[in-house]
């Protein structure tokens, strides 16, 4: 399987998703369902959450597939 790395940004934060690391634990979806929508394309709707909600959900990612950089 090809590794895909995608980045999603707003004014405060850049979210990075590394497909190779993703174990589909769905912690992101459970903790910020308005932002992380796996049935949609693109599946991360960064504009639909605030920075604390987004980073809080990412901090719970057990595989490290999701990370972020604050601006």
**How far from one another are the termini?**
32 Å
The low-pLDDT segments are none
Q: Order of helices and strands, N to C? A: EEHHE
Major beta-sheet overview: 3 strands, antiparallel
Determine the mean pLDDT: 96
Number of helices: 2
The fraction of residues assigned to DSSP E strands is: 15-25%
Number of strands: 3
Shape: globular
| CATH architecture label | 2-Layer Sandwich
The CATH class designation is Alpha Beta
- As a whole number of angstroms, the C-alpha radius of gyration is 11 Å
Q: How many discrete domains?
A: 1
Q: Which structural category do the helix and sheet elements fall into?
A: alpha+beta
Helix-strand blueprint:
Elements: E1 5-9, E2 13-18, H1 27-31, H2 51-59, E3 66-70
Antiparallel strand pairs: 1-2, 2-3
Describe the structure.
The chain has about 70 residues and is α+β, with helices and mostly antiparallel strands. It is built from 2 helices and 3 strands; from the N terminus they run E-E-H-H-E. It has a 3-stranded antiparallel beta sheet with strand order 1-2-3, covered by helices on one side. Strand 1 (about 5-10) and strand 2 form a beta hairpin. The longest helix is centred in the last third of the chain and has 9 residues, at about 50-60.
Which properties best describe this structure?
Alpha-Beta Plaits; 23% strand; 71 residues
Q: Quick gist of this model?
A:
The chain has 71 residues and is α+β, with helices and mostly antiparallel strands.
